[in-house]
TrEMBL record:
Taxonomic lineage of the native organism: Bacteria, Bacillati, Actinomycetota, Actinomycetes, Micromonosporales
Family: Belongs to the bacterial solute-binding protein 2 family.
Molecular function as annotated in GO: carbohydrate binding
Main location: other
InterPro entries hit by this protein: Peripla_BP_I (IPR028082), SBP_2_dom (IPR025997), TAT_signal (IPR006311)
Subcellular location(s) of the protein: Cell envelope
Name this polypeptide is given: Sugar ABC transporter substrate-binding protein
């Protein structure tokens, strides 16, 4: 077996292990909609209380439903463990402010730091500093470019989101006999690598089917900017067959623009898997017919894995003695047919 094959096997197993960590027994309490691993019994030796672990945590301000869910999940997961103390610090308005807050956290010398940076490239230096100081860093969602800046990197499959969205659209267009569909795209913040990866997956998959994006209007992961971008796109395209909006929070504004212009001739695919989007898909009374997941449950997994790293343990279902270096969660497609199964994971 080649080194590459072994690496793929390890990462595939890691993704499976992380999935089992959460999806086997999740809680989505109506009070905070947190996605929490409650598997504390049975044969899971890792679940038993062990060495106390102090976990530092930082994520951008919760001005967005997905980010709010990230923070809620991290706090709820930490509270589920009697041997975990979570020390959360405010991230501030930008990377510089987050860096200052993290410097204070680093001085407290927690056992592990879980960090969703404003920007992975700009906070890479902090990851290197913490790792050099002997504090393992769990890099969440927005990737550090330097592998030495993190002990574990856990994120969603951004390229896979684009692949999943395009695959759904291609299948629907082919079923309708539309050979040259007019396809629109509303991404999030264009400067972020994750947005670029999502668009690349979407574009590459469409190209393989002989399709292309006719018009692309970036938004900024908010309802207001989603409404603006959708209005501009619909004005530019008198006819649309399909639309992919990268983010369900900004999708609220996209749907508002669609209603205002009374444009219902196309199907829309969302991104992330918000509860509102899943409910709309299940109701089947709008152009939104599917969404591709990018679940904030990754924050719950990050806390669980940070705990294991702090206790020098591995994943129970893997042969390896340590938590893997990288975990990428798969992007799944939610449609009317399976919406009920995913409702509990909406945020």
């Amino acid at each position: 077996m080649s080194v590459l094959d072994r690496r793929r096997l390890l990462l595939g197993g890691a993704a499976l292990g992380a999935g089992a960590l959460l999806t086997g027994c999740t809680s989505n309490d109506a009070g905070n909609d947190a996605q929490v691993n409650t598997n504390t019994g049975g044969d899971n030796a890792n679940a038993a209380p062990g060495q106390k672990v102090v976990i530092g945590f930082s994520a951008p301000a919760a001005d967005h439903g997905w980010i709010a869910a990230i923070t809620n999940n991290a706090k709820a997961q930490a509270a589920a463990y009697s041997d975990v103390e979570l020390r959360a610090v405010e991230a501030g308005a930008d990377a510089a402010a987050q860096r200052a807050a993290l410097a204070t956290l680093l001085a407290q010398k927690p056992n592990v730091i879980v960090l969703l940076p404003h920007d992975g490239k700009e906070l890479n230096a902090f990851g290197l500093e913490a790792m050099k100081a002997g504090i393992p860093v769990v890099n969440l969602d927005r990737a550090f470019p330097d592998a030495k800046a993190y002990r574990l990197q856990i994120k969603g499959d951004n390229y896979g989101m684009g692949v999943a969205a395009a695959t759904y659209i291609i299948a629907q267009m082919q079923a309708k006999g539309v050979s040259a569909p007019i396809i629109g795209e509303i991404p999030g913040i264009d400067s972020l690598e994750l947005t670029q990866e999502r668009s690349a997956g979407f574009r590459d998959t469409l190209t393989q089917a002989g399709f292309r994006v006719a018009n692309r209007r970036p938004a900024e992961f908010t309802a207001d900017t989603g409404q603006r971008a959708a209005t501009e796109l619909l004005q530019a395209l008198p006819k649309v067959d399909a639309l992919w909006n990268h983010d369900d929070d900004q999708g609220i504004g996209v749907l508002a623009a669609i209603n205002q212009t009374n444009r219902k001739e196309f199907l829309m695919v969302g991104g992330a898997g918000s509860k509102a989007a899943i409910e709309a898909i299940a109701a089947d009374n709008s152009p939104l017919k599917a969404t591709v997941t990018y679940s904030p449950s990754m924050a719950s997994s990050a806390i669980s894995l940070a705990r294991l790293i702090g206790q020098n343990k591995g994943l129970a279902d893997l042969v390896e003695l340590q938590v893997p270096k990288e975990i990428t969660l798969a992007s799944e497609t939610i449609t009317k047919e399976n919406a009920a199964n995913y409702m509990k994971l909406g945020f």
